[in-house]
Each structure stands twice: as structure tokens, then as C-alpha cells.
Amino acid sequence: MGVSGSGKSTLGRLLAGRLHVPFAEGDDFHPAANIAKMAAGQPLDDADREPWLTSLAAYVGDATRAGRSVVISSSALKRAYRDRFRSAGPGVWFLYLELDREVARARVARRAGHFMPVALLESQYAALEPLGGDEAGLTVHADTAADIVLARAQAAIAGFEARG
User: Fold this and answer.
1) pLDDT of 93-124, one tens digit each?
2) In this structure, is residue 2 part of a structural domain?
3) What would you report as the CA-atom Rg of the chain, rounded to the nearest whole angstrom?
4) Structural domain that includes position 84
């Protein structure tokens, strides 16, 4: 989880590879209207996010019922969104990729071929509710080397699974 440019997709794919589980790109769950709205520089509101959240929660629920682990990249900006995913699959764990605004702006500005414009970053930071201490997961700074992030995530996931 994290704002645009935090490395969710890149690290998610790497983590899924290390864990030998499927990876799902959270952006792929957005309806076309949401993608068009964001591409036009308009932030999504909770009503816009509803079908996206419903689709992601269904995916989590399906994986849980099938006994499969998966890695999903998702902004999951608000605790209410994360609670919804946890309700769909009680074993949900979050890796929060914390990132400074300036670094996020620079990363998003350098990206080619993505619908999310730099102008929408402020709306993401405004909505962001960082991972709470009582939420299953780990917070790491997104500027940390990928191998370190992955090693920390794997160790934290193993500890979470051992408790669960």
C-alpha cells in the first residue's frame, strides 16, 4: 500500500516472486471510468472507489476461500479500505511503502505510460491514513533498497503467519 510512485507494483511483483504466489495489479481492478477520471486529473472520491474496492475485496475473498496466498498492489489509502480487505480475508497483511511527497512527485513525473498524473498526488496524501500500529503489516520507507524491503517483508510475513 502507498501513494502513487511508492513502488507498490515493482515491489509487489518482486515479493510475489520470492513468495512463489500470484501477483495482482490493483490498478487493473479499476473500472474504465475511474481510469479516465484520474487521467483527466480529477481525484477519485469514495463513491468512485466503491466498485474498485468491491472487486479487490472479492479477489481477496476468492483467494482466501481457495486457500491461496496472493500479493496485490493497492493504494489502500484509508483504514476503512484496509478493513474491508481484512473482512474479505482474515489473513490480510499490509506492506506500507511510505514516501516523501517530493520523491513521489519526481517518480510520478518520470513515469511514462501511466494514467496517474502528478497533480493527483496531493489528493492521495490528503486521503492517506498510514498503517496503524494495531494493523497487521509493516511500514518501510520506499527509498529503502528493494532487497532490504523484501527481506524485511518476508521476515514480517513469516512472523505473522506463525502467529496466525
Assistant:
1) 999 999 998 888 887 777 666 566 667 788 88
2) no
3) 15
4) 8-163
